[in-house]
């Protein structure tokens, strides 16, 4: 396996910048997920590492060697796509053997490698079947097996689970994780499904508009989003983000919400807000960081229930505060109905503060 480095990589399509000065190190044996909204440059980045498209600037380094001018076949990488790309008329065995036959490997060696990969992926009983005789999950395993037999230095995966139904996706997620653990593989994995990134990846790279927004462990990206984009993108339901002005009332630091609410900050949050020097702040609060109360209490924000969404073990309540719509979670036994007046308390130790101008997190 090998480390992969992108050093200040740029990809332009005419005037359009698809990948903008991207620097990223994927360590040997690390599983990194590239996430971000549609069109943010995830697939382009993967294809640049694979060599399927040429970059405009910067260096791509695999295993310590600059591979800018190397053909895809010489980069020693294997790709797994969402459509599997299996040969329909070949058996599973022949699908797995194909890349090895292309390399003119001796038959006995091919047999051993195919059996070993089939064993790892528990597809031995399927070796004589054809792709159409397999379920989606089995086909996906064969596609993975075909990548595995080549013993590549790096696995590149582009939404490999997106054609599977929800239940199978969850199962394959855990199998892929196990696969990574056992193979100690370097994996770069493109997905639009945050759950896949959060559950499988050692680190996730969040991209937007060709720019890298944050590169960190899923826990850090969730708990300490670098800016309002990451805060709003990672986590479901999305974090509540409320623009506000900072004001002093006596010794208290008070946020005056653009939507008519106000909230006195704790001493710690107040210091943070003042230290930024910015009088415009964005207050970030996940649904679990807001307490919903059914009577007025000091330092709460008044709102009105818009909709109630029970999901089983948690109920999401959407609350209008002025023009803003916030989502709050409550235990399922809480009785609340549309149009009820409610009061919201921000849990100070769970709040995020962002600079209103730069949108960057305040520290
Ligand atoms: P998705 O999740 O929708 O697959 P993505 O994050 O993988 O999106 P990319 O496919 O990497 O996004 O595309 C990044 C940007 O580059 C997009 O704006 C896209 O329209 C543009 N783009 C991609 N390929 C080309 C091309 N061949 N010519 C021109 N523009 C392109």
UniProtKB/TrEMBL annotation:
InterPro entries in the record: AAA+_ATPase, ABC_transporter-like_ATP-bd, ABC_transporter-like_CS, ABC_transpr_MalK-like, ABC_transpr_MalK/UgpC-like, Mo/tungstate-bd_C_term_dom, NA-bd_OB-fold, OB_MalK-like
Protein's UniProt keywords contain Transport: yes
Keywords: ATP-binding, Cell membrane, Membrane, Nucleotide-binding, Translocase, Transport
ABC transporter domain residues: 4-234
Transmembrane keyword on record: no
Gene Ontology molecular function: any one: ATP binding
PROSITE patterns: ABC_TRANSPORTER_1, ABC_TRANSPORTER_2
Family to which the UniProt record says this protein belongs: Belongs to the ABC transporter superfamily.
Protein name: ABC transporter ATP-binding protein
Record lineage: Bacteria, Pseudomonadati, Pseudomonadota, Alphaproteobacteria, Acetobacterales
């Amino acid at each position: 396996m090998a480390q992969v480095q992108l050093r200040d990589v740029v990809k332009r399509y005419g005037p359009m910048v698809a990948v903008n000065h991207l620097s990223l190190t994927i360590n040997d044996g690390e599983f990194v997920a590239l996430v971000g909204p549609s069109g943010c440059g995830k697939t382009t980045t993967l294809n640049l590492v694979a060599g399927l498209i040429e970059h405009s600037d910067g260096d791509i380094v695999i295993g310590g060697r600059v591979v800018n001018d190397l053909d895809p076949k010489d980069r020693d990488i294997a790709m797994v796509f969402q459509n599997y790309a299996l040969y329909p008329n070949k058996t599973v065995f022949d699908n797995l053997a194909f890349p090895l036959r292309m390399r003119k490997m001796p038959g006995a060696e091919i047999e051993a490698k195919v059996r070993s990969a089939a064993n790892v992926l528990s597809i031995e009983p399927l070796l004589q079947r054809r792709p159409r005789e397999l379920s989606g999950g089995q086909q996906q395993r064969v596609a993975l097996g075909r990548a595995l037999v080549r013993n590549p230095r790096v696995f590149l995966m582009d939404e490999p689970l997106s054609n599977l139904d929800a239940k199978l996706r969850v199962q394959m997620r855990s199998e892929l994780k196990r696969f990574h653990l056992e193979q100690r593989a370097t994996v770069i994995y493109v997905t639009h499904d945050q759950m896949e990134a959060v559950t499988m990846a050692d680190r996730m790279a969040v991209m937007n508009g060709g720019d890298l927004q944050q590169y960190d462990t899923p826990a850090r990206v969730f708990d300490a989003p670098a800016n309002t984009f990451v805060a709003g993108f990672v986590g479901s339901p999305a974090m509540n983000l409320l623009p506000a002005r900072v004001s002093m009332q006596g010794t208290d630091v008070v946020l005056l919400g653009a939507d008519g609410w106000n909230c006195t900050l704790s001493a710690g949050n107040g210091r943070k807000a003042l230290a930024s020097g910015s009088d415009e702040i964005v207050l970030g609060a996940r649904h679990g960081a807001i307490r919903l109360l059914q009577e007025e209490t000091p330092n709460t924000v008044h709102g009105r229930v818009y909709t109630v969404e029970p999901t089983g073990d948690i109920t999401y309540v959407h609350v209008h505060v002025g023009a803003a719509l916030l989502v709050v979670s409550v235990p399922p036994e809480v009785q609340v109905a549309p149009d009820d007046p409610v009061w919201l308390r921000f849990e100070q130790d769970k709040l995020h503060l962002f600079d209103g101008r730069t949108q960057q997190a305040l520290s």
